[in-house]
Structures are given as structure tokens and as C-alpha cells.
């Protein structure tokens, strides 16, 4: 192990920093990725196109931020200040959503009738502002710090912990939101104050908890040259496996983004599962355990042996969730049990795949250059999937049935077709990986 690298098993301070920064960041991202959609759906009657636009705009903001701020952290040789100050600013930006309410909008703009459209616009704009701070702190700085602080012997274990945090955060958010009536604006005000305060607090604690990982600029490039480094053809050729892995990761994430923006709305509105939190909580706990141990299997057996099994779980989850409404068109436990099993398979496959890809990308990232490559990772994880995936979902739902709300407005109901579309996209990357692995075996056998 090279000098300056933290040993995950021995350095408890590192483990604590890894857990709280990853968990808190993922809690904030869950609120954005899964509940901002619910927020504008319930408070401002957003359409599927509005939700897709918000996801796309946020993805663009996240990618540009990570490219520029990741390169800046490389140039400065610092991660800690970007992490801690970024989390503080991130928390403050989350607080601001407490002010996006129809009564506040009507008072400011004097147009109660148009408050809904103004609200959707404000949420999309502030989502991009919040994403700037969140991506600076988490996507750029935290992920570069984690890469700098581990090596090939322990990245799978660290990535297993890191990758299970999205599920743990979903459980925390689902459980925390159970006490709120999400049809009431006052509930959202309290939620944003709590989440904003938590993220801000972790940023402050980070100044005392995070140890700066040793970083140096190995090639002494200027700032703009550092930004463009990962896009140079010679760098692509030199790091062929890294870029091929990013391409597969991109298609994998497109599959996820086809259904993810509409998932909670589907459970609650389409399936009528008002108690979806109670159904999802056990699935989340089990999937988190699967992901935790899966990271260690990646360390032991490698990416090639573990990536297809994880995608197989995801595919089975998609297939079951797609078939349930047509095969079991009933309510009650007859519906809930297969939905639970499908959700468990889907979440286990998703997070296990994230752990495998995360380990692969960190292992092939050139040493001391983690910051400048985080933008490319976000491009394959967030930007392109965030543009293509929700648009596929919106296209699939273009003729979705609608319901009339108490105030006379209408809202769309997502259908199970989003899981079929996600499955089809996933098959593309599974086929590409299978062909590549078979070619590698044939080449080895021929030699």
C-alpha cells in the first residue's frame, strides 16, 4: 500500500468520515432525486415533462460543476475545504426550498392563478443552484477524496459501504417522511429545514473529522488544461479500460433514470400503496446488506466476475415489477408481496452494480488525478443518463391515464411500462459486457 493511503479496516476516523459524509450526502440526494419530483407533483401539479426537465437541468448542472470544481481541487491539491465548505453551502441552499410555497409566490408576484407554473420554474432553478453546491462537495471533492484515500486492495470494501448508503438514506428518508402529510406545504417547510440543518452540521463537523488525503498535481498543468485533460484523445487511448467502463456505466444509469424519477409516484398513486414505506423498508435493509457484502466480493473476484450477476438481479427486479400489475391486478397482500420481492431484486441489483462500477472506475483512475476525472464519471452517471433516461420515461408515459385532484386539476399516473423500458435499456449493456467478456476468454484460450 502506498504511503499516505488510509487502511479502511484500521483507521476508524476514516471510516466515520466515510459513513457520515456518504450517508448525509445521499440523504440530500434522495430528497432531490426522489422527493423533489413528489414535491412539484403534489404542490404545483407538475407534468411528466416538467419532472423530466428538472432532472435534465440538474444533471447538466451536476456535470459542469463536477468538471470545473474537480479540476480546481486537483490544482489546489485540496479536498477537505471543498467537502466541508461545500456541505455548509449545500445545507443553506436546501433551506431555501422552505420558501417556495404558493402563498409566498402569490404574495411576491400577485398572481395566485399562475403560482403553480411559477413554482415549478423556481424549483427547477433552485434545484440547479443546490446541485452546484452538492456536486462541489460530494460529486467532485468527496469522491476524489475517497479515491485518494484507498487503493486496489480495499476499494471494493470502501465502495461497498459507499454504495449501500443510497439505500440506507432511502430508508432514513422514507421513515422520517412517514410522520408528514406531503399534501401540506407546511410539511415540506419542516422537511427542508431538517435536511438543510443536517447537511450544514456535517459540513462543520468535517473540519474536525476529515483528514486531508495527500494530493499533488503530477503534471503541473494549468487550470483549464486540467479541465480538458480527460477529454484529450491521447488520454482516452492511454486509459482505454476506464473509458469503456464509463460507457457501460452510462447505459446502466440510463436504465435506472428511466423509472427512478417516477418510482414513488408509481407506488403511491398507481398501485395505491399509501403504506409503501412499510413495504419498502425491509427490502431496503436486505438490499443494503447485499450491497455491503457484494463490495467485498468485488475485491476478491474482480469486476468481470461480479458485474453480470448484479445486473441479473436488476433485470429480474424490472421483470417482476413490470408483470405484477397485469398478472395480479388486485390490492392487498397479493399485490404487496411480489412488489416487495421485485423491489428487493431491483434495489439489490442497482446498488451492487453501482459498487462494482464504482470500484472499477476508481481502480483505473490515474493516480493523483481523481479530481479531474470526477466530471467524466458524473457525465456517465448523471448527465447523459439524466437527459436520456427521464425523456424515455416521459415518452413511455406520454399517454398515461390521469386522475382529477380535489382542486379540479389533473395529475398523470405512471404505468409499469417504465420498468419494461428500463429492462430493454439494461439488456443493451448486458449484451455488450457479455460479448466483451467472451472475446477476452476466446483470446486467452487461443493464446
Which segments are poorly predicted (pLDDT under 50) over 5 or more consecutive residues? 1-10
> What is the CATH top level name?
Mainly Alpha
- Strand order of the main beta sheet, please? 1-2
CATH fold-level assignment: Growth Hormone, Chain: A
Mean pLDDT value: 83
CATH level-4 homologous superfamily: MFS general substrate transporter like domains
**Using only CA atoms, what is the Rg?**
22 Å
Overall number of strands: 2
Order of helices and strands: HHHHHHHHHHHHHHHEEH
Report the helical percentage: over 70%
The number of distinct helices, counting runs of at least 4 residues, comes to: 16
Instruction: Give me the secondary-structure category.
Output: mainly alpha
Largest sheet: 2 strands, antiparallel
How is this structure best described in words?
This protein is mostly helical and 447 residues long. It has one domain: Growth Hormone, Chain: A (Up-down Bundle). It is 78% helix and 1% strand. The chain contains 16 helices and two strands. The chain has helices spanning 12-44, 48-76, 80-95, 102-109, 115-148, 155-177, 185-209, 223-228, 233-238, 240-259, 263-270, 276-301, 303-327, 333-363, 370-396, 417-446; strands at 402-404, 410-412. The protein has a two-stranded antiparallel ribbon. Strand 1 (402-404) and strand 2 (410-412) form a beta hairpin. Helix 6 (155-177) packs antiparallel against helix 12. The longest helix is centred in the N-terminal third of the chain and has 34 residues, at 115-148. The chain is globular, with a radius of gyration of 22 Å.
